[in-house]
Amino acid sequence: MQIGFKQGSSFLYRLNPLVKRGLAFVLIIFFSLAALEVSLLAGFLVCLLAMLLLARLPLRSIFFSIRRISLLLIIVGLVQGFKGDGFDLLAAFEGIIRILGVFFTAGVYLTISPQSELMYFWEIVFMPLEFFRLPARELALVMVIAVRFLPVMLTEIDRIRMAQIARGARLSGGFFSSAASLMPLMIPTLSQAIVKAEELAEAMEARGYRVSAARTRYHRFRFSFFDLIWVTLAGVIFVLTIVSRFSNFNFWC
Amino acid sequence: MILLDRVCFRYNEKMETSFKLKEVSFSCKKGTINGIVGGNGSGKSTIARLIAGLITPQSGEITVDGFKPNTHSGNCQFLAGIIFQTPDTQIVGTTVAEDLAFGLENLGIAHEEMLVRVEETAKQFGLAHLLDTPVHFLSGGQKQMLCIASVMVMRPAWIIFDEPTSHLDPWARSVFWNIVSGFAHEQNIGILVISQLPEDILHFENIFCFENGGLVFSGQVDELKKESSQLNWLNRPEAWKLEEILEACR
Amino acid sequence: MKEFLQFEDLTISYGGHKVVTSLSGKFVPGKVNLVVGRAGSGKSSLLLTVAGFHKEFSGKIRDENGKFDPSGNFSLAFQNPESLFFNATAGDEVEFALRMRQLPESEIIDRARGWLLRWGLEPDQYYKIHPHELSGGEKRRLALAACTVFLPPLILLDEPLAGLDRRGQTSLATMLAEMAAKHIVVVVTHEPEIFIQNQSRILFLKEGRGDWFDGNEFLALSLKNSDFYPLPGWYERAMTNFTDRADLPEVNATAVAEFLKRAASNANRL
Q1: Proportion of chain C above pLDDT 70, given as a percent
Q2: Which chains touch B (3 or more CB pairs under 8 A)?
Q3: Of the candidates C71, C66, C117, which has an alpha carbon nearest to the alpha carbon of residue C91?
């Protein structure tokens, strides 16, 4: 199972996309920078999990999809553990909690954000470009279509690979495979990508898409009182992170 | 009404021999199922793209309900929608609702109306329970429906189908022809179906045959049937061949 | 040449979801083996499983020597096999599969030329041509020639007729029927009526179940109930009075006309 949007309707889903993104951003900063006791970090992660459970998120599938970073976790644990003299279990644990927190936050964010919200976010990010008369919405659309197109292209590449292997191509030469032996895969993939992109462009144009035209928007995102609470919470976490990291006044331990 | 007056089109303007269409003139009306037939490379897909305004002819004139398709901008009635063969490369949105809304966004439709139209159209095509579903979870049949719905939601005056049947399974084909007949006869939407399968001819009422970039026949399907045994460029439906053989025996 | 490819209690799943359930039966050479069913009924999954690319299955796939080993023993072509071209000439395209099998140079060219001829592409005319200069039907034939030139015992084709005009379809169907004499040819198709002959083997997939029919059984069942399989209307109308016959004609005008003539003359004699 890939990480990606799963349908849902709980309170997390209904957050304003910008708040969602901001919250995810703050949490990632928190897990990577906050200079807190390990027990506090772990406690925070547990609280977070409890809240996500409350929001009825598919936690199992998120865990399942980030399991491939388990090797990374072990390495980080070892590196952190052997940093000082001998092996410090607590330091190893801290490293693991931090990495887990970062990846988990990212996983949850991608699970609760449909494409339209990601696009909205990109539009806001690209907004400054409009001052230079560059098409912000179109750039955002390009990002979204790239994402929309990925599964189509992956299936196509898979089919080409299987059919060429059946013809006798050796594509899994791994370490020793040369560029020449990848030709049977690369040329058809490239030409199919162009063909499919052209088809898509034509289909978009056929449905009235013009770069310069004034478009309206299907999704509307409101900023509610509920969002305000979350913004405040994000602010507190952010301040806490910065203060704990950069002030000498250590009031936690 | 669609009107083509001495339309020429070539992909490479410098090469005199690269003609796709040579001085094509015809007209077709709403209320019947109009069909275009021709083999690979006969120019039939070029016609579809010209009418949908995706390409511009080098010479000659095209009008759809009195407007020129290539200069006709959004913000008013959408002239001609086109539905292509493969669903995967014409679904733009990532969820069903987004894909339905894409065309409306381009037309600059107001938000409130957009919501109403998306919902209505989804209901009409049996997609109402799937509005928030990511498109890659849809079955093949649902994807086909979405492609039609996404054009219908724009309320086009005409719909052009580019070889719609060649990728449908036989069960879906009969459903498809029922939908098309409903559009043409009950909802007053202009229908133009492009096909290269001879069996599809039996579903057409008015027909235009293309061969090497030229129009070689236009008229009622019954007329074509009468002449068909003399037309050696035509891939005749098996049904006609059978009738003819049996006729000869009598 | 293989004598058969047999399934024993084959169940194919995707992520725990069963697509095909306990399928048993066999594909044989002689006639084209057809796989028919609605979109999403597991037809392509079956091909991928046989080819060894899809591993989530239980049950056995056997041939006369025991467990079927797919490696090097099959060819596989999906819809639009033309998209596999990556060489500068039609000849190179066909030679590729032989070259990868390290045959001697002289044999490669001989076999490639012979094979092109077999697929109706005169080698003197086509050998040095760029694959994309060919017409639609020629491209399809070149693609299938390139996929089968190493003479695998098992040939798996997913929708080989899609996108061709009727002339291209019938000529390709004839060539595949010839191929079936020496190979096990399995064709997944929405146009079975172009292939169906009396002894054709048809695997009909529906809601996870697989049922085997010969051509006549399949035609008879479809005639009695067009929900089972919608045959062309003209064939249904012509055959309404003959649904119980064991010698139903192929689905083309000439065959049906002859059948009707025979039926009429028999009726006269009585």
Answers
A1: 100
A2: A, C
A3: C117
Subunit contact A210:B52, Cβ cutoff 8 A = no
To the nearest whole number, what is the mean pLDDT of chain C? 91
Range(s) of the domain holding residue A94: 17-113+222-246
Are the C-beta atoms of residues B149 and B127 closer than 8 Å to each other?
yes
Q: How far is B250 from chain C (nearest CA, A)?
A: 10
Q: Is the Cβ pair A217, B82 closer than 8 Å?
A: no
CA distance C237 to B202: 14
From chain B, the residues in CB contact with A213 under 8 A are 73-74, 106, 108
Claim to verify: residue A183 and residue A229 sit in the same structural domain:
no
DSSP label at residue A214: P
Which of A7, A147, A203 minimises the CB distance to B90? Answer: A203
A253 — pLDDT class (breaks 50, 70, 90): very low
The predicted model gives A224-232 an average pLDDT of: 87
Residues of A in contact with B84 (CB under 8 A): 199, 202-203, 206
Residues A109 and A146 in one domain: no
Predicted pLDDT at A211: 65
Domain coordinates in residue numbering, chain C: 87-150
How do the domains of chain B map onto residue ranges?
Answer: 1-79+157-222, 87-155
pLDDT of residue C242: 92
Whether A4 is in a domain gets the answer no
A7: phi then psi, degrees, rounded to nearest 5: -60, 145
Whose CA is closest to B221, among B240, B245, B194, B248?
A: B240
Number of domains, chain A: 2
Task: Quickly state the pLDDT bin for A178 (edges 50, 70, 90).
Answer: low
Smallest Cα distance from A122 to chain B, Å: 15
Compute mean pLDDT per 10 residues along chain B, 250 residues long, and list them.
90 65 90 89 87 89 86 65 89 88 89 94 92 84 91 93 86 90 93 90 93 90 88 86 87
pTM, full prediction: 0.82
CA C211 to chain centre: 17
Q: Which residues of C are catalytic?
A: 159
For domain B1-79+157-222, give the CATH number: 3.40.50.300
CA distance linking residue B250 with residue C67, whole number of Å = 58
Q: Find chains touching chain C: ≥3 CB pairs under 8 Å.
A: A, B
Distance of CA A96 to the CA centre of its chain: 19
Chain A residues whose CB is inside 8 A of the B111 CB are: 216-218, 220
| A51-78 per-position pLDDT tens digit | 888 877 777 777 776 776 777 788 888 8
Structure token digits, residue A210: 């013009």
* Phi, psi dihedral angles at A207 (to 5 degrees): -100, 30
| Degrees to nearest 5, angle at CA C145 with C120 and C87 | 110
Question: In this predicted model, which residue has the larger pLDDT, A129 or A212?
Answer: A129
Cβ proximity of C31 and C199 under 8 Å: yes
Residue A215 lies in a domain: no
Chain B residues in contact with A205 (beta carbon < 8 A)? 54
Is residue A125 one of the residues assigned to a domain?
Answer: no
Same domain, A76 and A103: yes
A38-54 and A89-112 helices, crossing angle to 10° = 30
Residue A117 burial by CB count (10 A; 0-12/13-18/19+): exposed, middle or buried? Answer: buried
In a domain, A217, yes or no: no
pLDDT of C161-219, one tens digit each?
988 877 888 889 999 999 999 999 999 998 898 888 767 899 999 988 999 999 999 99
Return the residue of A nearest to C74 by Cα: A166
Nearest-by-Cβ selection for B114 from A200, A203, A216: A216
Chain B within 8 Å of C259 (Cβ-Cβ)? no
Query: From the CA of A151, how many Å to the nearest CA of chain C?
Result: 17
Compare CB distances from C97 to A167, A191, A195 and report the shortest one's residue: A167
